[in-house]
Request: fold
Amino acid sequence: GAVVSQHPSRVICKSGTSVKIECRSLDFQATTMFWYRQFPKKSLMLMATSNEGSKATYEQGVEKDKFLINHASLTLSTLTVTSAHPEDSSFYICSARDRYGKSYNEQFFGPGTRLTVL
Amino acid sequence: GENVEQHPSTLSVQEGDSAVIKCTYSDSASNYFPWYKQELGKRPQLIIDIRSNVGEKKDQRIAVTLNKTAKHFSLHITETQPEDSAVYFCAAPKGEYGNKLVFGAGTILRVKS
Reply:
């Protein structure tokens, strides 16, 4: 149980294009999902909190117009990197909290998406 | 806001030895401390967590201890095996409702056989 998927797993795009990444909770409902960015050999940096049915909340320094988040259902959140540039290349990981899980705080992570912007 | 520091950044141990990784946190109100294991290119996996109402929790070869007074918690792995080699992250809650996590910088554990 508590499986989170991400799609795509890997994407290469040209500078200036937009890329959408999907995060799905497969066997549970997630009112809250989180988007992280991870640079090579570095820690996970929280970018934003995605709330079902409401606007996402962004961490300080993260441009909300650059990283668009939509959480349209209890099992799906999407992150769109708009007008991507090489500096946006990174590993993006989502996580989700089980709405009815026994542990309020536990986050289940997706497998990540490797974005490379040429 | 919460600040988490993790040490050491790298740790090499001989197979069968124990490994200890320590984290300190800043917010005395924090009440949940998970440890994640991440293998190269893979997702972080929760291996153990502890809440602030207990001082120690054990699951087979893995244990976590919490010292609320000193605001630090540690991961202990006994009888290490090569498959324990990975990056380990500690985390602590942040945000108004404590529903977000702030992660430590990570520890690269290498178990030499």
Observations:
- Chain B has a mean pLDDT of 95.
- The radius of gyration of chain B is 14 Å.
